[in-house]
Amino acid sequence: MYSHGSESLIKQAREIQEPELQKFHSRLVKLLQVKELSHETLDSLQRLQLILFANKFTKTLPAELQQKLLSLLSSPAEQLQVLGSAVLRETLPLTGQELNYTQENLSQLNTHAAALLLSQAGSRADLSNLCTQLIRGLESRPSEGPNQSLMFTLPVLNTMFTLSPECLTEDHVTLLSKKLVDWLRYASIVQGGSASSGGFFTGPRSRQPLPIAELDGSVSGDFFTVLCVGQGFTEDQWMNVYSFSMLHHWLLTYHSVSNTAVDADDRSEVEGSVVSMVSATSSSSRLLPPKERLREKALQYCQRLIEQCDRKAHKKADSELQKACLVEAVCVLDCVCVEDPSMVYRAFPCIKALFGRLSSELSFARVLLPIAQFYLNHGEMDTVDCERVWKLVFGQFPAELFNDPFLAYELLRFLRLNLESIQRRAPEFVHFFPNFLKFLAWDSPAVVEDFVDLLPSLVTTGTAVELLHTLLDLPCLSATLVLQLRSTCLPIADQNGRGLLSLEAFRNPTFRGLFLFLLRVKAGSGDTIDRLSTLHELLTEAADWPRVVRCAQTIPVLLHVYFNTIVKIDDEKLLAHLVLVMLERSSLLLRIPSYSKEIHKVFSCHLMRLCKLHPSLVVDQSHELLEFAGATGNVYSKEEVYTHVVWVLGEYLSVSSDSRCSVKLITSCFEALEAVLFEITSSAPPPGTICPTPRVITTLMSALAKLASRSHDLIPRVSLFLSKLRTVARSGSVAWCSDEENLVAIVTRGEELLSLLKAPGVAQSVLTPPPYVTTPRWHRDSNVAMPLQLRALTSLTHSQ
């Protein structure tokens, strides 16, 4: 993990002795007493940090050295601040030192000092006390002079609320809400710093500060926001920016505080506020409790931001800032309306107008998602038609922006977090699953966890069959999305272009329908296409594309999720259809190395599970299952699925599983399996294939024995075959089994079955035991002696 040089330094740091360490401490104290710190000082600080980091136990530094390191936190050189904070975070603070530092040096707070304060908080009580001290520090008046620590205090508080919202008290909420109102709504409306360039005419008039401006260059005619610009900014303007950046998180966080009754002091909060010195209007809003007043000002602030975003910015960076502010503003409005539903009627016209303006521009897709969240949360209250929103979010976004990783993350997160609400408000979203799966086809590793959560909600009686086909064809969709993008940027006759044949097919009108079906937006146009084999041939060269291979690797995981959901649907007609789909699609898969084998394993596992839960499926689909089991080629090309189909037929084709099972059906199944077993044990495997595994042969033998035990007329036939098999195997090597140990195992199994069939009644009990034998409950049955014996043994062992 470490280089040889790094390991050597760490070893030296761990092996340093205490006397040497004390000398090093003394020398470092002397170095820190010099005003101009040298490179030797920096090297020594780095070495001290390494010693403390590499040591197993946390150490306590000498008090003098610790005080010197604390003084580095207020150094003008940030490198010293970083080193001082890093060293102190590896040590135990001296008793009372943390508290003294906070009280006495709060005006010198910076990012690195804040990190130290948080790391040294040993309990929730410490965090609460620190929170109290920091919030009190926010109460300083402008007349007391500039306080640079204010700009670091809000980020520190925000971090504290994230780590431990329990440290908040009602007093904290009241005080901080007051300050946020002041900074958000009543920041200065003039530029910070001097705008004068000096000269002969310099005087009091020419040094008058300029008003703040909008992003389009016009003079601002309203209160200051994060989208106002100027040559410089005052402290309260900076606090306005910080306040808006943490506003959404604060609105979500302060609910953790118990909602106690608001007393008279809450309603007279204006007395200790800067608001009283700035504005004498809107007295009614000042009578509101702090939380309600903050929501009121947040609403006004966000409406002003949305209005500012209508202005055309001169710089591209400012345009991106507008988009970011729109996202945050809509999220804050949504949060405010969740807390106070009466505000929906004031906020909704603004949101509706914003959606109307941005819905035609895909570049604002990440802004439109918070708008969709607002519609989802509050659309019922305002009785609005949300269909346009859902068509845009579920239809157009995935279809055209499937290759945008940020949108993919945010849209899938939107679906996961609001799944219950979406199912209630927009149940049609399940029909857009072909669109959602484009995110998975394009970037499978990044979004597979999202689809593990989402897929069960997409499985319904109406979508199950088409969804299964779509999952199996997802590698084809991945290749098609690549071709769709390449077709727009590569010339048609590019001899060096990779995938040229696929591109030609993609552009060919003859095959256009195949690709358009894969690129469909909604389900319902058909479960699959007739010419799947043609599509797979056209995409043969895509089988080794990295994006397609990664996509194929995720399909088995999703199929397990799919079938785990399917078994909860009590619809045997649907399950019977899915059995047919599995048999059909086992031979219709894109030829990707190991892809077919993995899919066959999944099919085998869940085919057996479905038939165990619903044994009647075997009789319902007996014709298709027998047709599959009677094809000798399936032994070599679909060994996994074939083996399990044969096992299912032998296990569940009985009167005990389904009263409709007749002797005629058992006989037809026996004859089909007998023909296959005779064929594969009497000739060499076809060219290009390998010998069948012993599991296939022994499963066929066992299935024949089970069927014969249920129809005794078949016992002579299977006995004769097993006898011949034993004779042929003893005569020497055979073409259908290349391994001697495998041959011995097959013959041994045959002899066991032959012995059982000599006693037909015993054979049926052994090969097809009744349920009370396979799932015993003797330890719970009061009619047998087992419970009494267990209780006796328990009492004996516990008494020792």
TrEMBL record:
It comes from the Eukaryota. InterPro entries: AP5Z1, AP5Z1_ARM, ARM-type_fold, TPR_AP5Z1_C, TPR_AP5Z1_N. Residues 450-796 form the AP-5 complex subunit zeta-1 C-terminal TPR domain. Residues 321-438 form the AP-5 complex subunit zeta-1 ARM repeats domain. GO terms for cellular component: AP-5 adaptor complex. Residues 1-280 form the AP-5 complex subunit zeta-1 N-terminal TPR domain. This is Adaptor-related protein complex 5, zeta 1 subunit. It comes from Iconisemion striatum.
